[in-house]
Design a protein that fits this description.
By secondary structure, the chain is α+β, with helices and mostly antiparallel strands. It is built from 10 helices and 10 strands.
Length: 380
């Protein structure tokens, strides 16, 4: 059974052509200069690649989660940074707005974001608590009929350049944890203080620390229900885990292709490197890992698209394996290239750094294992 339709493959072709034409020329600039590719984002918006699951009526791609994974794979093959930027933009922000925001919110935000004219960011993580999202300290207090938000967010992709922020804030007692969290739609204003964060890989993604200083919003800016934010966050992160596995698939593919090309042209001991059995075995291990990521990722996306009850478990299984395997493939690619692989000249080196965030973002490996074990305890 094929998990992808002809429509998915047409999207793949468009995404691959876009990545090679528009992303490849700026991939190294993003990495070296921490350059945020504003114009390429707008170009992606024209094709619906930027928000692949947002309905066409708002200017998005109108696809399902498999569509998003196809796009992220093809972008990640060229640039892990650009792929992650689109994943955070199109899934964590835009898909969440499409699924949970009011009609008025969607009509205001989605057409601008889908076109790439305005940037959206998903603001959850804080200095106090990345993995323990229920412990967030950013607070929204009701004053004279309005909400006033104060607090700090950290590691926010696209945050430095965002025009809209989907912000998780505490709207009750700290001891109520997940039962007292609400999502708000904030617009860029003077009450928002931004600080750029230099990161090891996936550079050029506008990663930022954000401080909210008495940001005032109205009741119409609540996304979903007051104290109902946790359900939205968990749904969004589960979808995001499969989406980021698509990024992992692309990065692993890109690193494998780099290593294969290197082995075919590199001469050692008067032979091509690819003729040596150890190199052949390494390439075999890498391809086996890439295909494992592919199978898990597209299967999990299929489960979501068909509303299967297996999706929640498989999103965590997929994220855990995809991240670990992507790191391993990129490590092997660097090793294959030897001294060159350790230099900034090598794309394998860039992919290696890009891959590491996949074991941290959208839930660390440890959190994935924690959730999987809770499933074991409850069901097996």
């Amino acid at each position: 059974m094929s998990l992808l339709t002809q429509e998915h493959e047409l999207v793949r072709k468009a995404a691959r052509e876009f990545a090679e034409k528009h992303v490849e020329p700026i991939a190294r600039k993003m990495d070296i200069e921490n350059y945020y590719p504003r114009e390429v984002i707008r170009e992606a918006g024209k094709l619906g690649i930027l928000t692949p699951t947002v309905p066409a009526e708002y200017g998005g791609g109108g696809g399902d989660l498999r569509t998003a994974v196809v796009v992220l794979e093809e972008l990640g093959r060229i640039s892990g940074g650009f792929s992650l930027l689109v994943e955070a933009y199109g899934i964590l922000f835009a898909d969440a707005v499409n699924n949970f925001a009011s009609k008025a919110q969607k009509e205001e935000v989605l057409p601008k974001v889908a076109a790439g004219d305005k940037i959206g960011a998903f603001a959850l993580s804080e200095p106090c608590c990345g993995s323990d999202a229920a412990a967030i300290q950013t607070r929204a207090e009701k004053r004279a009929g309005e909400w006033v938000i104060n607090g700090e967010k950290m590691w926010i992709t696209n945050g430095l350049y965002a025009d809209y922020y989907l912000v998780a804030a505490r709207t009750g007692r700290s001891e109520d944890r997940h039962r007292a969290i609400t999502l708000f739609l904030l617009r860029r204003s003077r009450c928002i203080e931004l600080s750029p964060i230099e990161v090891m890989g996936v550079r050029g993604t506008g990663t930022a620390g954000i401080k909210f200083n008495d940001c005032v919003v109205g009741g119409d800016d609540v996304v979903g229900e007051v104290n109902g934010g946790w359900k939205i966050l968990m749904h969004t992160l589960d979808v995001g885990r499969v989406a980021i596995a698509g990024v992992a698939l692309g990065v692993a593919r890109g690193a494998f292709e780099e290593a294969l090309a290197w082995a075919r042209r590199r001469e050692v001991f008067n032979r091509k490197l690819v003729e040596l059995q150890n190199a052949q075995f390494e390439l075999a291990e890498m391809l086996a890992a890439v295909e494992s990521i592919r199978a898990l990722t597209y299967y999990s996306a299929y489960l979501y698209d068909t509303k299967s009850q297996e999706f929640m478990l498989m999103s965590h299984v997929t994220k855990l394996h995809a991240a670990r395997l992507a790191v391993d493939v990129t490590r092997r690619a660097v090793q294959m290239e030897g001294g060159f692989g350790y230099s900034k000249e090598s794309k394998a080196e860039m992919f290696y750094r890009d891959a590491k965030i996949l074991e941290i973002g959208e839930g660390t490996n440890e959190i994935m294992k924690y959730v999987i074990y809770r499933y074991i305890e409850k069901n097996l």
